[in-house]
Design brief:
The protein is of the alpha/beta class. The protein has 9 helices and 5 strands; from the N terminus they run E-H-E-H-H-H-E-H-E-H-H-H-E-H. The chain has a single domain, classed as Rossmann fold. Helix 1 crosses helix 9 and helix 2 crosses helix 3.
Length: 194
Amino acid sequence: MITSNKLEIIGLAGTNGSGKDTVGEMLAEKHGYLFVSVSDLLRVELKRRGLPIERENLRTLSAGWRRESGLGVLVIKAVEFYEQQKANYKGIVMASLRNPGEADEIHKLGGTLVWVDADPKVRYNRVFSRQRTAEDRKTFEQFIAEEQAEMQHNGDEATLNMSAVKDKADIMLLNDGNDISAFKKYAEKVLNLT
């Protein structure tokens, strides 16, 4: 079990389509957390720069920010946003952490890092069915290849390395089913929120 003070700051990491946003949204709606998607922070900046919102651009921008401001910069930006309105929330939950420096920043702040995962075919079907962007329209083989590129550093320490983030996780959540309500209840139980 984890203690309640470690739940003021929760970092969510995991594979694409695993259910990170589902956990974040549940914590926001049911438990009073501010949910911040660090990917959305990047999307806003890409839009501001007039660049297409594509995975490669997201990776390039996040690596650039890490090189300029430190490996935990996305966590710091999310926490600064939270600090401005802290009185309105129980805590902050942020997703999708993809660099071990972000995991380290969560721990440095006394927070809990949660890794969410699911079977690759299940995740692919989720992503393919939602098709939020053109990026979601790809073959299973392309989906797996992109994930493999994000699992290990492809360059310096500022690039993505989701395997190293997974190794630093405090809690693991498995989401292989199709029952969102059951998954939310399972996540609440594991996070000791029920």
